[in-house]
Amino acid sequence: MTARKLQLVLSGGLVVGAALLIVNPSASDAASGLIDEKNRRLAPDFPLNDSHGIEGRLSDYKRKVILLNFWATWCGPCKLEIPWFVEFENKYKNSGFAVLGVSMDDDGWKSVRPYMEQKRMNYRVILGDNSTASKYGGIAALPETLLIDREGRIAARHVGLTGKNNYEQGIVELLKMKE
Is the CATH code 3.40.30.10 the one for domain 3-176? Predict the structure, then answer.
């Protein structure tokens, strides 16, 4: 296990305990955590070379609301979120929404492709690295998920496991905004 992976596992583990309170389905919906529009910064652009060999860029998704998720196959909290993201992709893809997964696995497609099939991931996945992560100020823990508005600006940043309702509330609010 690399030092970076160990750091992410340990910091992610600390977040899980506190986050379990957030995930509790009996708890009321928390605020979406959206950043005020005037304080949002442009999401850094980067290439998207996915599991099918299709090339593109994050900027190709302008005019869509994006859930950008940094994750790894070995990340426990990531395993909990993936089914939610599959559901969001199904539910909102025709409303101008897309999920993009950025795998931070060291061994690349060798472990990611089979994992994607096993989890029936229906959204675009790319391989990330330190360069990709550094564009976003580095990744403190996995999972780390950003909601990006239709203007390509970061509207929310969730570090560690976040409740499904928090994500969905943010998605719905962003989708209501004019194109």
Answer: yes
